[in-house]
Amino acid sequence: QVQLVESGGGLVQAGASLRLSCAASGGTASSYVMGWFRQAPGKEREFVASITRGGSITDYPESVKGRFTIFRDNAKKTAYLQMNNLKPEDTAVYYCAAKIGVGVARFPHQYEYWGSGTQVTVSS
Questions:
Q1: What are the backbone dihedrals phi and psi of residue 32, each rounded to the nearest 5 degrees, phi first?
Q2: What's the rounded Cα separation, in Å, for the pair 96 and 106?
Q3: CA separation for the pair 63, 121 (Å, rounded)
Q4: What separation, in Å, do the N-terminal and C-terminal C-alpha atoms of the chain show?
């Protein structure tokens, strides 16, 4: 079983960048597909990015494609989300998730393990 801890959130102005980190422990990080989701107040949890175990395949929704990049360092057991050109609508709690098996995934129910989240606030 793997435990996930996110870090790197904060308050930034529109147009700024942030890099979120997701540190994994208690398991073999390279065995899991990793994903990032976000949830704003009053809204459902939203898919942000996913990456395969080896890092060769990534997936993004149109809302963040070209601005966000997911990558991972399996030696450090850490996944990252680089967020550029942030917009106020990116404001949310960002969650890291791990999925057993292969293939990127876009839906929360496909992931078995979750972190507790990190707040990202983008001011206009």
A1: -115, 140
A2: 13
A3: 17
A4: 40
